[in-house]
Amino acid sequence: MPACKDAVQDIFVKELRGYKPDPSAKSADVSQVKTFTAPAAPSVPKVDEDISAAVAEYARDDATVTASAGTPAAGTQKVEYYFEEEAAPEPAH
To answer: Which of 1, 19, 41, 82 has the fewest CB atoms below 10 angstroms from its CB?
Structure first.
């Protein structure tokens, strides 16, 4: 009795050996892909005026922002407002 072979495996191997790829499939991606072109290099911005005087003036400027001590800044409230004071326990008789 000959060796029992798997019929599905035989059909699969037969079809696999008989497969011939479509020759037009090799160039199918050519129409789908664009060629890469590098973007142009950015140019350096040109400053027509000398800004060293403006930088020196900024460095000399001694402007400071201070809040007045008497009034709180807008939108702020005291912290005590958020916490309720705990009631002292009543002494026992």
So the answer is: 1
Side-chain-side CA neighbours of residue 72 (13 Å): 6
Tokens at 6, concatenated: 């798997």
CB 38, CB 32: distance < 8 Å:
no
Query: How far is 79 from 20, CA to CA, in rounded Å?
Result: 81
Single-letter code of the amino acid located at 31: S
The whole-model pTM stands at 0.24
Q: What is the dihedral of CA 75, 80, 81, 85, to 10 degrees?
A: 170
Cα 71 to Cα 58: distance, rounded to the nearest angstrom: 30
Query: Which three-class secondary structure state does DSSP give residue 45?
Result: coil
